[in-house]
Sequence to fold (238 residues):
Amino acid sequence: MANLAGTRIAVTGASSGIGKAITRLLVKEGAMVFGLCRTIGEVPEGAARVSCDLSQPKRIEQAFETIAAAEGGLDALINNAGLAWSERVCDGDLERFAQMWQVNVHGLVVATQRALALFPESGGRIINVSSMSGHRVPPSGGFYAPTKFAVRALTESLRCEFASEGLLHQVATISPGFVDTPLLDRYFEGREADLEQMRECTPMLQPDDIAEAVHSILTAPPHVNIGDIQLRPAGQQA
Fold:
């Protein structure tokens, strides 16, 4: 996909933060972008707005039916949507556990299966926007990291399945550290002073930084199979 003009790409969570930046960049590059999210009014101009709730499998299926009816196929899927609460495993809110698992893991799988059905035989690309919390557990612990470890395992499972079946699809993960988005505000709920101090002391990654990484993967030559890109703010230690 050296040239993204005319390529058909679905982006989940396209209405804010990283997803919005990815959608904006891909539209600028000339791609036909389908922005999937609950608040479609916030999807950047130039993208096709598709109502979708990653916590509801039926809504995901309907979203991809809309894409199929509009374009007949897809060349790439960016699994970006996610939930993040800093809920402790030992005494955290079980309902929030369920919501994070449903969106971050199960919803990602449903979207992936639906996208694969629309990929060309010549191969499509899947990019899972994960987190550094999929590589190490933060000192505060929590249930968010297990969902991101699962995303990492899912990515490798897909890679193995594609290889064993001789499919030309590629899958990659992007694992950012702290990115200044609304998701971070949710993660630091109840610890706003800690977040404010971090923002003062550590320049964070911006959503556009992650969008550039997505662009790099999408435009890599077909013989280059990128596994995982890890990005941290310069001042973030782990």
Remarks:
- The chain has one domain: 8-227.
- The chain has a mean pLDDT of 94.
